[in-house]
Specification:
About 20% of the residues lie in helices and about 35% in strands. It has about 290 residues and is an alpha+beta fold. It starts with 11 loop residues before the first strand and ends with a helix.
Length: about 290
Amino acid sequence: MAEKQLGLSDGKIKEIRLYSSYFPEPYDLVPHIKELNVYESLFSNALTANITLQESFNLPEKLTIVGEEVVEFKIEVPGFFDDGTAVINPMPMYVHKTTNRHLKSPQSQEYSLELVSGEYMNNIHSRISKAYCNKKAWQIAQEIWMNRLWVPGRFENGIFEPTERLEQCVIPNWSPYRTLNWLAQRATSLTNPNAANYVFYQDLNGSNFRSIDKMVQGPSMLLFALEEAQVDPTKVEYFSGGVTKCESIDIRHQPEIVHNVNRGCYAAKLITHDIVTKKITQHEYNLANNWNKI
């Protein structure tokens, strides 16, 4: 029977190795780990992570950690997939800097290694100057990801959701991420052509080009409830029920009339110059004519 994930503590770090050009063998970081964080977001093109280490061997000097190293780690999480099976996903990530380095005692120190995915590194080393004709946005995005970003040897199970219209564009020496974000802003869904809410993001499964409209149609992943914290000896009872208790909820964004006027939110006419498609277009909006499309 498939094992279920009950809480955050069920994640198991199977292996973390650091590869350095100054050291002949990969170094095992697991004995020195104090904290490991992996960050993914719908509004972030790439995975990022940080590893907090506490050690007394002075690894930054002995391994010569200068921000060009590769860290490969494997994490096992029961219930990661819908069928409840565990996943062990090797994820090579690159060290790009060391932060928060300080002495804990005369014989030990603590610091964090800031990591980015291999696709992020491919992005900053690549530029696109190319014309695309009679292709849909999701097809262009998939081609860019495959030819410019994909890390060979890594299995990915990302989703590229089909889009509606054909694109005619010339990419003017942009990075892959800038191009993909531009495509996401223009792309509209087959099921809802009036909504332009595509995002390009990376998660543990891979890179995705998807619409928020499509994602919100699925079941909710987590419920946040405004309730007072109660005693929970195991620290997983609330989480196992799919509920996260919140002591307070702040509503950050409120209507701002002056700000919205300056942004053109209440204007009925918009003139745009698109440097990529080489077009100057005037858009006119009429609420009465477009009411049924809202």
